[in-house]
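Re: folding output
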Amino acid sequence: MQSKIALHKVSSSQISEIGHDPASNTMAVRFKHGGTLYHYKGVSAEKFEQFKTSESIGSFLGKHIKGQHDFTKIIEKKE
């Protein structure tokens, strides 16, 4: 079971929240469309820092994360 990663709101046209767990090198991304949450594996703290401080996190995700890191769609339980 994946541990819960704290998410922080970001300014992006595609992405609403991001987070990172340095213990497992897992990056969490919640998309605005549908509110779907994905976990990307093998993302270092350094790469996450570059991601969150990039001029466009959507562009960075497309160029440096997608296709380079395996991901899991997280099915969240409604409380």
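--- second protein (sequence, then structure) ---
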Amino acid sequence: MSCYGSKDLARSFRTVRANTIQIAEEIPEDKYSFRPAEGTRTVAETLAHIATTTQWPEALHAPRLGAVTFELFMGSMQKATAAAAALTTKAQILDALKTEGEKFAAFLESFPDEALAEHVNYPAGMQPPSKSRFEMLLSAKEHEMHHRAQLMVVERMLGITPHLTRHMQERMAQVQAQKA
């Protein structure tokens, strides 16, 4: 029986990050200030947020801490928010997406498989009271995919067909051409 391990997490995260980078590249810089609705992040803010929030899981799991505290979480989020605010151009955001993404993927790749089953406790009252490191590390990818989906809707609002949709349309056209 095979097991989904750290190398698999790294590979799948790299795929997700590559798709995010392609979206970041395809949205013109003059549209980075686009905000789809009041109270939401701009394109630039969303991409900068994605680029910097992988610092949190690394801060928790690199030293293999056994518990999350609000202080640790809030400190990590404040650090990520400050780092995101410093990214003001498309070039800076793309560089951060690439470098921070590869840094996190390398961290995942080197993380011991046996540590993925360890449980990390949450503060009293939180549900569930603990989660496995695997679930917590996987959530970094889920978080990015959540925001990437938002960006794909933004692309449509800007008149851009997302690359994943274009690729699917191309494959479907090839199948139709082969049937003809």
